[in-house]
Amino acid sequence: MSRPILITGAAGFIGSHVAEALIARGISVVGVDNFDAMYATHFKKQNLSDVEQSARHAPELFRFIDADITDANAVNELFTLLQPSGVIHLAARAGVRPSIEDPAGYMKANVLATANILHASGMHNAHGCSRVVCASSSSVYGNCPVAPFHEEMDVSTPISPYAASKRANELQAFTHHHLTGQPVAMLRFFTVYGPRQRPDLAINKFLSRVARGESIEMFGDGHTSRDYTFVNDIVRGVLSAYEAIPTHGYRVWNLGSDRPTTLNDLISAISTTVGKPAQIVHKPMQQGDVERTWADLSRSAKELQYRATTTLADGLAAQYEWMKRS
Ligand SMILES: NC(=O)c1ccc[n+]([C@@H]2O[C@H](COP(=O)([O-])OP(=O)(O)OC[C@H]3O[C@@H](n4cnc5c(N)ncnc54)[C@H](O)[C@@H]3O)[C@@H](O)[C@H]2O)c1
Fold it and tell me: For residue 275, is it left (φ>0), alpha (ψ between -120 and 50) or beta?
């Protein structure tokens, strides 16, 4: 059998979708995850069961291993056992606000774990581990005064430990590429939503609470904005980056939608999707939250032929349908 692609964080939101997309293309995948306690394990078990279901016609294409990638020995053993042809590294503690309460935990789960993955990938470079694609985040742009955000802009002022951990990963990935020559892509995802979205994220919480007639908390006056991006668009971008990175060496790409939406407009769109009014409880802006995100997609359009095709209305409808089924 051909060598698998290793996906870290495969039981998570984005990882499970990337795994399904590779399996649908007949590519062998090994998923790794440790069911980190950031959110309940049963969501992740369901994600994995969905991936297994999508591989039912070719079960040999998917294998799952429960492992903690902050453990360097465990990571080295995984690489020796699996001999992956490449790595899509999505595992992390995601989320801005909890990172303020536990910066050291975030540095371990995000920075140390990425060091382990890069080092093991580099050790296996000569044995066919051809590339690494890593999840970065739009949060690295901090409160950048100019928008949309282009990959060449200054990203030296992250405003949360989570953002700092993602920027640290971009720096260590550059160093890794410089030292080993192994191609590494860093993908700056802009607020991803869709079926299986993490339960801590606003769209998931808002859809379920508005549907139940419960109030939702709005932090700030609603003028903050996010470049919400549907997960299928992100998956296409990840796979294009996986294909393209060997010709680039080290490259950062934005994967967003280039359609920023204010919180006020998001809440209106959610009310429309659910068919019920939103009862809003106003709260002050939260520390660590940026004012806005907005992806400049010119580089990823040119080099990855990336384009986000899903409108917010269609994406919300898809997420709401999934929520009602699950
Ligand atoms: N969802 C978004 O809007 C968004 C935006 C920007 C960047 N990202 C990044 O994309 C990636 C995927 O995010 P997601 O939303 O799917 O999050 P997620 O929490 O659903 O998935 C991450 C997975 O990584 C696993 N994990 C964490 N620590 C681990 C460890 N030490 N060993 C093994 N597995 C571990 C978790 O159990 C989880 O299943 C993350 O790197 C995140 O920072 C996400």
Answer: left
Q: What is the pTM of this model?
A: 0.98
Residue 118 alpha carbon to ligand 1 centre in Å: 17
* Domain assignment of residue 37, given as a range: 5-192+230-256+294-308
- Does residue 61 lie within any of the structural domains? yes
- Number of structural domains in the chain: 1
Which CATH number covers residue 243? 3.40.50.720
Q: How far apart are CA 61 and CA 94, in angstroms?
A: 27
287 found inside a domain: no
Residue 199 within a domain? no
- pLDDT tens digits in sequence order for the chain, 326 residues long: 689 999 999 999 999 999 999 999 999 999 999 999 999 999 999 999 999 999 999 999 999 999 999 999 999 999 999 999 999 999 999 989 999 999 999 999 999 999 999 999 999 998 899 999 999 999 999 999 999 999 999 999 999 999 999 999 999 999 999 999 999 999 999 999 999 999 999 999 999 999 999 999 999 999 999 999 999 999 999 999 999 999 999 999 999 999 999 999 999 999 999 999 999 999 999 998 999 999 999 999 999 999 999 999 999 999 999 999 98
Say whether 306 is catalytic. Answer: no
| 43 assigned to some structural domain | yes
* Cβ(241) – ligand 1 distance below 6 Å: no
Residue found by looking up tokens 């990425």 in the block:
114
Residue 280, judged by CB atoms within 10 A of its CB (0-12, 13-18, 19+), counts as middle
- Of 7, 16, 38, 187, the residue with max ligand 1 atoms within 8 A of its CB, to mutate for a pocket test, comes to 38
Q: Active site residue: 106, 162, 228, 306, which one?
A: 162
Of 81, 180, 78, 52, nearest to 122 by C-alpha is 180
Rounded CA-CA distance 73/247 in Å is: 31
Residue ID of nearest Cα to ligand 1 atom 20: 12
